[in-house]
Queue: 2 jobs
Job 1
Amino acid sequence: DGGITQSPKYLFRKEGQNVTLSCEQNLNHDAMYWYRQDPGQGLRLIYYSQIVNDFQKGDIAEGYSVSREKKESFPLTVTSAQKNPTAFYLCASSIVTGQPQHFGDGTRLSIL
Amino acid sequence: QKEVEQDPGPLSVPEGAIVSLNCTYSNSAFQYFMWYRQYSRKGPELLMYTYSSGNKEDGRFTAQVDKSSKYISLFIRDSQPSDSATYLCAMSAVRGYGQNFVFGPGTRLSVLP
């Protein structure tokens, strides 16, 4: 079955630590996205990528970094510079930007 | 003015009721209009999408787009407890880059048995 796989489902970060969230898709989509969702709030765009080796900052990119070395993979690193990282992180993909996006089941990040 | 506004809810209805969920938007360049359903602790699931104006029906769900009024709706007929979730509207411009794909804040729906 085609889809988007995010791992791990739950992640804990210690103070001063960088952590990486994995996102893999087998839908052959060019565009991929990372969103952050806080309780009772909407989706906020962190980064997006239109094509391999390209990515653009979204609305809340500070404290995060991404790479897009392969079409199917778009990992997100939450760096120690992100002072409030506790949230639900969602990865999405679409055929190209502007087309309907399909989401993974998210990674819940908490601080130890 | 926010780009997308959505009825905030929460909304509680009895089983079997007809539910109407609505969004308004301001960007006339939007061409794709989507509805997502998100269960607790899960990612949003694409429920329906339409391109440009008109209606689309899929089982108990009907999506309507009125571009002249910049208004979209999702109707759920014969609502079931399994429809209890948060519903997000979304819209985008053709080949819209990051900021040209926007989501509404969501409406939480509870269908009571």
Note: The mean pLDDT of chain A is 93.
Job 2
Amino acid sequence: DQQVKQNSPSLSVQEGRISILNCDYTNSMFDYFLWYKKYPAEGPTFLISISSIKDKNEDGRFTVFLNKSAKHLSLHIVPSQPGDSAVYFCAASSVDYKLSFGAGTTVTVRA
Amino acid sequence: NAGVMQNPRHLVRRRGQEARLRCSPMKGHSHVYWYRQLPEEGLKFMVYLQKENIIDESGMPKERFSAEFPKEGPSILRIQQVVRGDSAAYFCASSPSPSRYEQYFGPGTRLTVT
């Protein structure tokens, strides 16, 4: 039962433009959301997070938006850089340490 | 400061054999989580351990899978009598305390069952 879904397996964007990654969830008990970035042959590394009491969190080039009524969040990367080429995972949790992950979106930034 | 270490990175086993996956947490971390990623799916929680204790194994298959985190040495995920459906990437993460905020992941072990 996939509680977190990333419906776009891949995204290609030109360097300098905006990357928008989307994530939907079904469990209304989720109250904390995270984005992880993964390079080949490495483990996922934490990128940015948002609590359900907020609708936006910004950290440098990365902004996460949360729409609780739609059970949807998105990650914006502006401007996109070649080093941003990676797999991005959306994750969610409800009160405890268990993280539920989406299947990931592979981002390719073209020069 | 070394990160989370996992070995082996790649493991090939024939059906019916045993697989042992090792995870050494970051220095100072005594909480370990194991996740499994099946093809085309996201990472799924399997088990949470502290030193010498299994805290939550709600995501572990009921049979053939076990995990431990001894007082000394790495955490071990053991899969007995492997089947083709066990082929997956297994990631462990560690944290200094029970946390959903700061789990640090290792590079994973890719298990292939032939």
Note: Residues 66 and 92 of chain B are 14 Å apart (CA to CA).
